[in-house]
Amino acid sequence: MSPVSRLPPLATLRAFAVAGRRQSLRDAAAELGVTPSAVSHQVAALEAWLGTTLFERSIRRVSLTPAGQALSDELNAALGGMETALARARGDRSAGRLTVSALPLFTQAWLLPRLERFEARYPGLSIAIQTDNRIADLDREDVDVAIRNVAAPTAGQYSRKLLDLRATPLCSPELAKELKAPADLSGAVLIEISAGRAGWRDWLAAQGLADLTPRRTLAFDTLPTAIEAAAQGRGVILGLLPLVWDAPAARSLVAPFATPPMEAGAYMVTCRRAERTRDVVRAFTDWLFAEMRSDSRRLMRVERARLGGG
Asked: CB within 8 A of 216, min separation 6: which ones?
């Protein structure tokens, strides 16, 4: 590269952007279809052109310096904008498609009843929704937006909190008559979710009952199925507030105890950092946050009514 060049070669910028997003020279090489050595040389060339270090290197890993993180974020956003502009210019159908990965309860209880409003705004947009508890790999899968209850976003991804979550025991009214205090759960069936951040172990520990053993457990892989089982009187579920009340099966459930709900993370909206300004991604995420803002008061009213003001 000539020292008087105003911009490094696009291939050099792209190699660094991908390496920065993936936080790995090897993974960047796999995505770009080149060798790790080639990516390393491109990154070194960019560092020489800039006169600054972009990666801290160790034997087994690399990590971005503050200057590298800032440049990676800006380059990925710029490259994403270029790809979107080019897609529109060539009439690429992918510019009119959106794939969303969302948790089953969020999809069933909250998203689907409102999705028609978004579709009315963008009638030409094709939408695919994947609903399972598995965390989608946005770097490797054809997913544009993910809605998950995660502790922190993956490196190289953009994430924003949509809704705080809390957890509290719920069961059928008949079963609630047998439960006077949390210690009574030793004689109950506890319904568990095979994947999830908040679980019975955490809730029981918060009540000073870390050693409590229930009569038995009953596990399901999705929260809507577990809610249905609780509504049928099969056991006690740890319900995820406030959206649990929007699940049809949860309308018959009650909270057997007056204990305060436990903090249970938050729903996070995540996308590839490079695509957060892509038209369809930005339109969908902006719509999600607007809908949740307008619905927050209703959710609070429902929760107060169902928990008796707790």
From this structure: 189, 190
